[in-house]
Amino acid sequence: MAYPSAVRIVEVGARDGLQNEVSVTTEQKIALINALVESGLRDIEAGAFVSPKWVPQMADSSEVIKGIAKHPNVTFSALTPNLKGAEAALDVGIKEFAIFTAASEAFTQKNINCSINESIERFKPVVELAKANGVKVRGYVSCVLGCPYQGEVEPEAVLDVCKQLLAMGCYEVSLGDTIGVGTPNKVHTLLSLLLEHISADKLAVHFHDTYGQALANISKALEMGIATIDSAVAGLGGCPYAKGASGNVATEDVVYLLQGLGIDPQIDLERLAKAGWAICEALNKQPISKVSLALQAKC
């Protein structure tokens, strides 16, 4: 099997993970991000510039980003859904904006009260600000393999949204299985269509492990040439549409999988696990990661 020779991991635990957990202190977030860097991670979502009314867990994103150690070889990104958020992110030195929409009309209407096209239109000032300041923009598409409201999502709808985000100026689009219902066959069907129109280096995958399929789905994506994977240390984050279910695939499990495939992600697994243990202690919970729990049992 011809897997990619190198794989980039985008660590989303400090943002996508923690925003779905109970709040922790600014100092604990800073310690987590610094520990993730020490483990070897080079792409880290550090916060979200969103309304604290809706996402109180991210209210201190400016303080977190100002507090983390400066690392010239690490890209810290932040969620910037509107111009106000993008300006705030720019003020603290963020060099990569993240914008998000969905492939499901029902999902966008329920969550942000607009159509997919209207959501993309809202991003234009954000992208313009990014271009004017040398900031990269990464796009996220939710519900690529299923929607909690409309059910099935057609691959053609995903393709259309991806094309719009790339045309707007996103350097990459992350494909999100928001409710974790995807299976390898569904991943194959979706990527087969997308790769007819979009090069693999412009696509990333973001799987949730609600039904325990995330690693199998990642393996399928790797087989098809996708070389960027989103994951969260310790499996941080829940799935808000499936009560009690796990959310993001754990970075430790992804690293272990890659190592087993002969792909070196340049990440120290033990240091990574320790970063997860520390934040889980702060959250008063156990890691979701099976690899993390296995390593913990050895200590």
TrEMBL record:
Pyruvate carboxyltransferase domain sequence ranges: 7-273
Single annotated GO MF: hydroxymethylglutaryl-CoA lyase activity
Keywords: Lyase, Metal-binding
Pathway linked to the protein: Metabolic intermediate metabolism; (S)-3-hydroxy-3-methylglutaryl-CoA degradation; acetoacetate from (S)-3-hydroxy-3-methylglutaryl-CoA: step 1/1
InterPro entries on file: Aldolase_TIM, HMGL, PYR_CT
SUPFAM superfamilies in the cross-refs: Aldolase (SSF51569)
EC nos: 4.1.3.4
Alphabetical list of Pfam families matching this protein: HMGL-like
One record GO biological process: ketone body biosynthetic process
Family: Belongs to the HMG-CoA lyase family.
Protein name, as recorded: hydroxymethylglutaryl-CoA lyase
Species name: Pseudoalteromonas holothuriae
Lineage: Bacteria, Pseudomonadati, Pseudomonadota, Gammaproteobacteria, Alteromonadales
This protein's encoding gene: liuE
